């Protein structure tokens, strides 16, 4: 079952913060976050494992709430390079063999 | 550059035809995944191979088939093509098949069916 991402789209000014959510109706082993620029390949950001851990990557961090089966991606002090579509891929099997991706959140950062 | 290569970059063909998309995984990666991305369907998992064997299947049509060869490159064959098959087809690779394994995506093949 496809995870639900929210919001569908967001426009930010450079330096502002954003949160992207990814919710699943099924129990997850892990959540994989990717960013894709138009016409390009998805680029890996980070993996969150069940257990509620939080990870960070420069000014992008994420958390995984196992009780809610929800992951959130936090973008702090956004830069123009953050623009793109963010996808969460959910792993229901523990093998990441069949990641089910959300419909994406389109993020645009402006000056 | 993820290290995953895909050919061709673009493919234009007619309905009813058959095409083959090729993918070479990153050096050392044993697992290959195929995804289809269209405007209305998002990123859809098609099939996965691990060290030459089929490991997982997603929403792959019967007209589509894939294989992974001994040198670990993979091919996705699409036959009896329909207009709705027009999409970006991505290949991804990973070392193993664990929950913490990162999938690295290739640049994709854009298929246009006229």
Report on this structure:
By secondary structure, chain A is mostly beta strands. Chain A has strands spanning 4-6, 9-13, 18-23, 30-36, 43-49, 54-57, 60-65, 70-75, 84-91, 100-101, 105-110. Chain A is globular. The N and C termini of chain A lie far apart (37 Å). The model of chain A has no long low-confidence stretch (mean pLDDT 90). Chain B has 114 residues and is mainly β. In chain B, 0% of the residues lie in helices and 53% in strands. Chain B has strands at residues 5-7, 10-13, 19-24, 31-38, 42-50, 53-57, 64-68, 74-78, 87-94, 104-105, 109-113. In chain B, the strands form two sheets. In chain B, strands 2, 4, 5, 6, 9, 10 and 11 form a seven-stranded mixed β-sheet that branches. In chain B, strands 1-3-8-7 form a four-stranded antiparallel β-sheet, with no helix packed on it. In chain B, a hairpin with a 2-residue loop joins strand 5 (42-50) and strand 6. The termini of chain B are far apart. At the A-B interface, strand 4, strand 5, strand 9 and strand 10 of A face strand 5 and strand 10 of B.
Annotate the secondary structure layout.
The complex is a heterodimer of chains A (111) and B (114).
Chain A (H helix, E strand, L loop, with lengths): L3 E3 L2 E5 L4 E6 L6 E7 L6 E7 L4 E4 L2 E6 L4 E6 L8 E8 L8 E2 L3 E6 L1
Chain B lengths: L4 E3 L2 E4 L5 E6 L6 E8 L3 E9 L2 E5 L6 E5 L5 E5 L8 E8 L9 E2 L3 E5 L1
Parallel strand pairs in B: 2-11
Antiparallel strand pairs in B: 1-3, 3-8, 4-5, 4-9, 5-6, 7-8, 9-10, 9-11
